[in-house]
């Protein structure tokens, strides 16, 4: 977590090798990612962005993304897990509904629910959620969080969030400022230090009152 422009998304781009690091190294299970085939690496990483891309194809096609191992039963379950079932069932053609280019026929929140269904169906080893619940109402966000907790067991989940409530229960919070890591620890540890995270957290909740 950190303020806009501090380098949060840059780190996720480096993990995916969208561009290569200039110094240091990134290890997955002790293996330098530069020694991992890019296609194989990305096949094990699922990303949900704040504005996910929706293709001009059916709901089924948008979730499968040409993965023939994903069945229609898998898709229905992924839609249920993502809390997108009410939305999809309301469409005239259900899971066969054809989306317009870039999902222009859907709201921002509906596109995010489809992106969650996509990631649940593919079940990657690593989840990267980049401000992924920004356009979803609080009730739906709580439902999705339960699903994430279930499906991410024994997996690595990386959350990028401005909404601090979404990260208070994670194992480790990495606080960035101006491209540098300034603090690391869990929520309780960082609050006790009274440092950068504690000040951001307190100011965040003061703004809600």
Protein architecture, described:
There is one protein chain. The chain has 209 residues and is of the alpha/beta class. It has a single domain (8-167), classed as Rossmann fold. The chain contains nine helices and seven strands, in the order H-E-E-H-E-H-H-H-H-E-H-E-E-E-H-H. It has helices at residues 8-15, 38-43, 59-64, 72-81, 85-89, 108-122, 138-151, 187-193, 196-208, and strands at 27-28, 31-32, 45-48, 126-130, 156-160, 173-177, 180-185. The strands form three sheets. Strands 3-4-5 form a three-stranded parallel beta sheet, sandwiched between helices. Strands 1-2 form a two-stranded antiparallel ribbon. A hairpin with a 2-residue loop joins strand 6 and strand 7 (180-185). Helix 4 (72-81) packs across helix 6 and helix 8 (187-193) packs across helix 9 (196-208). It is globular, with a radius of gyration of 18 Å. The protein starts with 7 loop residues before the first helix and ends with a helix.
Shape: globular
Q: Write the H/E string, N to C.
A: HEEHEHHHHEHEEEHH
Give the radius of gyration. 18 Å
CATH C-level name:
Alpha Beta
Protein structure class: alpha/beta
Question: How large is the share of residues in beta strands?
Answer: 5-15%
Record field, number of beta strands: 7
The main sheet comes to: 3 strands, parallel
């Amino acid at each position: 977590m950190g303020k806009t422009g501090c380098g949060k998304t840059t780190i996720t781009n480096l993990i995916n090798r969208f561009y290569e690091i200039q110094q240091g190294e990134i290890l997955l299970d002790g293996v330098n990612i530069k020694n991992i085939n890019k296609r194989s690496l990305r096949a094990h990483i699922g990303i949900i962005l704040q504005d996910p891309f929706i293709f001009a194809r059916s709901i089924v096609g948008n979730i499968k993304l040409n993965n023939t191992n994903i069945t229609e039963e898998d898709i229905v379950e992924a839609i249920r897990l993502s809390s997108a079932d009410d939305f999809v069932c309301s469409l005239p053609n259900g899971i066969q509904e054809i989306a317009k280019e870039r999902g222009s026929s859907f709201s921002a929140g509906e596109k995010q629910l489809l992106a969650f269904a996509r990631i649940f169906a593919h079940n990657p080893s690593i989840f990267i959620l980049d401000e992924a619940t920004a356009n979803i109402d609080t009730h739906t966000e709580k439902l999705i969080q339960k699903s994430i907790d279930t499906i991410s067991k024994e997996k690595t989940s990386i959350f990028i969030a401005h909404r601090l409530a979404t990260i208070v229960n994670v194992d480790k919070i990495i606080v960035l400022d101006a491209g540098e890591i300034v603090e690391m620890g869990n929520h309780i540890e960082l609050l006790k230090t009274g440092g950068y995270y504690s000040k951001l957290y307190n100011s965040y909740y003061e703004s809600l009152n």
